[in-house]
Amino acid sequence: RVHSGILHDMSILGYLGHLQSPDIGVVLPLHCLVPYQVPFNAVALRVIHTDVAPSNIMYAVNASWVGLCCIPEEVRCQTDGPVLLTQTPICDCLGFGIVRGVDMEKKLYHILTPVPPENLRLVNCLLLGSITIPNCVLVGQQGIEGEIPYVTSDYNYSI
């Protein structure tokens, strides 16, 4: 009997495999793939599995697995974002992605996804659930010198 965690990791790795070019023959690490740049004010954001203080929302979304969704309402924001939803919407999910980074100066999410650009134009909401990215994706990055981004062994559990 196969452990459910292994099946979870295999399904995510299979999905992420669509980020790779079939022509190259070698697997490129995440930091070598070109992400989409999405302005904060172009998409609404919601953490659906727990309450996160608005001041900590960017820490939660950085290096996370997100649903790329389409809500029927237009996303409006008076500022340059981020746009935070107060309730979890009922909406279509067009695919998934990894928020590879958050640029606070330029107010951009950097998202890796195999969803084609014509479908991405419909995405106006990022939903962050409790789905975790397999450790092997983050720890197994080739070509990184020094500390691996988003990975730590020096964590204070008393916080």
Automatic annotation (TrEMBL):
The coiled-coil regions, if any, are none
Highest rank taxon of the organism? Eukaryota
Q: Respond yes or no to whether keyword Nucleus is given for this record.
A: yes
**GO terms for cellular component:** nucleus
Signal peptide location in the record? none
Enumerate the GO terms in the molecular function aspect.
polynucleotide 5'-hydroxyl-kinase activity
Keywords, comma-separated and alphabetical = Kinase, Nucleus, Transferase
Domain NOL9 C-terminal: from-to ranges = 34-134
An example GO BP is: cleavage in ITS2 between 5.8S rRNA and LSU-rRNA of tricistronic rRNA transcript (SSU-rRNA, 5.8S rRNA, LSU-rRNA)
Provide the protein name: NOL9 kinase
Cite the source lineage: Eukaryota, Metazoa, Chordata, Craniata, Vertebrata
